[in-house]
Specification:
22 helices; two-stranded antiparallel ribbon; 498 residues; mainly alpha
Amino acid sequence: MTALLTLPVLGPLVAAALCLVFRRLNVQRAISFASLTVAAGCAVAVFVNVWGDGEVRVARMGGWPGSFAITFVADRLSAVMLLVALAAVTLVLIYAIGQRAPDERSSFYHPVYMVMSAGIAQALLAGDLFNLFVAFEILLMASYVLLTLEGTNEQIRAGTTYVVLNILESLVLLVAIGLVFAATGTVNMAELPERLAELPDGVRTSLHLFLLIAFGIKAAVFPLFFWLPDSYPTAPSSVSAVFAGLLTKIGVYCMIRTQTLLFPGEASDLIVVVGILTMVIGIIGAVSHQNMKRILSFHIISQIGYMVFGLGIGGEAAIAATVFFLVHQIPVKTSLFLVEGIVSRDQGSSSLKEVSGLARRSPWLAVLFLLPALSLAGLPPFPGFLAKFSLVRAGLDAEHYVGVAIAITVSLFTLVSMVKIWVAAFWGEAKPSSVGQPDAVATVGLLRHHRLMATSTAVMVVGIVMLAVVAGPFFQFVTDAALQLLDPASYVSAVRSS
């Protein structure tokens, strides 16, 4: 089990080093794909093990004692997140290879992408706060390079905002970890619950707020969201897709872990309010823009609001719905950004004022957009409906009537914005491709000109559909995950005894 937990982190790091040694693009592609395939296979094995008996798996690097070792921990939540995250980064890598954009042809793309993948895995498996901080720093450095790899003025400007805000997040997180260590003498997540409970209320609340601010910046919650709509639209589609699907979700994952393990039930009213405001500000931005990528970027914010709202409600039903929503959003947001990349590559733009008739040129591309869009809006029978319905029901049970009303309203406006994209970009008369493809493409289908891009996107969309097919068993799994989060005794005992 130690190898299964460490390979998703060490494997991509070794691959990054090899990619720096071997600069030929085809060799880098092979190394990257092989590394992520092995890492994803390990994630599958971990998930199957955890699903089978629910036991928490622990690995310590170098066999050091728990107080000194780098500890990787996989419970139900981290196991499913690791599986979905590594599947997403593998599919996006295939998409980037098919896209053959200038950034992917750079000799630094694949090493940096591997480093980012290692940071994602490390953040999800981290068993102590300092290891989590290191994972965030790995993510920051890699994501900044990916964001600005093409070197355009727009990317440099947006990347500067991105890196400044994330450095601020790193500073807040480092200060919070230092204060936690000063107050408790440990940063091990298995030891912290007991020691934090012994602190005076004011000290504990201050530490909690520091961590919430740090993770809130990463998750782009209100009022810490403003860096995201400017940063993500400027990145290449293969980069913005993995950013949209995963990086903000890492922040939400850390908020869930902090709220349930270290500060159970505390500051719940504040978190509910933040979730509601995040929903509202995100949907306002989405309905007011006319560029597909910018609309989807604001939807990242609004959907984060649902997860934070559910976390603030607390309890078994709300946490289960939040975890389901979190897992579901990764393939949904990633696939929508991948579709936008195909549109932008074929038409030269994703502005709704410049694109139309895509459904006539490629019905299959329209399907690849429509399915995740309907799930994002929360229509049955898609998994997004089950996630939002479960959150609404948990909110009603907890008597958060205003929040539930706002959540339903935001969902309706989400549907409106998806219809706006559909009517403007996919309906109407078809426009010729910007790359000079003949009219015959209308019968052949533009997806044949982007086979790898279309294939990876289709696999992602099939994953969304399969989540709807297995929604019953999977919702039972996330319910068990919620119970494990709310009663962390198994997590604590597994880490301490390993």
